[in-house]
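P.,

For your records, the input lines for the assembly:
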Amino acid sequence: MRKFIFYLIPILALALFFVVMNGGIYLKNVVGEEDHHFIKYYEKTRANIKEEKWEQAMDFAEKLEYIWKKKILWIQFSVQRDQINGIDVSLARLKGYLETKNKAGSLAELYEARRHWDDLGR
Amino acid sequence: MNETLVVIVRGIIAFFSLLIFARLLGKQQISQLTFFDYVLGITIGSIAATLTTELNSRAWVHFVGLVVWTIAVLALQLISENWRYASKYVDGEPVAVVMNGKIMEDAMKKARYRASDLMEQLRDKGVFDLNEVEFAILETNGQLSVLKKPQFQPVTPLHMNVPSIPNGMGTELIYDGQIVKQNLKDLSLTEEWLDSQLTTKGINNVSEVFLATITPSGSFFVDTYIDRLKRLTDISDYPGPN
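Structure tokens returned:
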């Protein structure tokens, strides 16, 4: 029994470390309620930018940023700091472009945020 | 991102991973490490440090690096253990730098071992005259093993045909003013006997004793807190703070 525990403790520890270091890939899509999904608000923001509905686009962009801030708490142990900063910066710039009603700039920032999102935890 | 929290969590992961992997690799005394083992240790430690503080890359990639190096070392250990040729290839072989009293210059050159290194390591072994050396072997861990010529070897009771009693290892009877009752019991000794021994040394109370030991041959050593030395030997050779 003692020998079993002797081997079990390091195995459990390594398994826990694996989960902490890789959980971000899984957690980024499941943390939060159904309507708190990053992709859902990304799509809504994109659609409104394309239709040049700037006020709605800004609302969704703010919601997107709020969701993103909540997700950071869960995924920060398993992703790169640069990727987190990348999404932060893209979302901040996105709001700037939306304020000035710049379609090309806001779409570019939104797509960049999406690219960082897809790469998170990989 | 709370960087402090992330570094704490990654530090815990690195610390315990390193502990588990070090236990997996087995126990080797620092003095037994070959140069390659030493470099491996530094590399694995460095990866663990990077895992903790390099936040611009994922912890997982560093952890994988740690696992790869550990597996590589483990594989090399297993191969060396089971295949002598590989062991020689990896760890090298001991080199005789002094043979029959003659310095082996070619062997030293091949091992990139200088005469000053030889002199230094001989002094470390208490040999100050090269005439005393019959063999000196440079081991794979960098230590020098020295065999003195017979005329310079210390005389032992065997040479003199004197019967000898094994000394054995000293056992603590009093430690920091307290009697170690377990040791007294193991040696079938009593506190009365201990008191009588202390009295013969002029000690009236156990609390005056810093350390008391006894060997299986019966040699009793006692040291008190108050050292009544008439003259202190100053081993310092330069003025300054002590």
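Two observations worth noting. Helices of chain A lie at 2-30, 38-50, 54-75, 81-99, 103-119. The domain at 24-119 of chain A is CATH 1.20.120.660 (Four Helix Bundle (Hemerythrin (Met), subunit A)).

Regards
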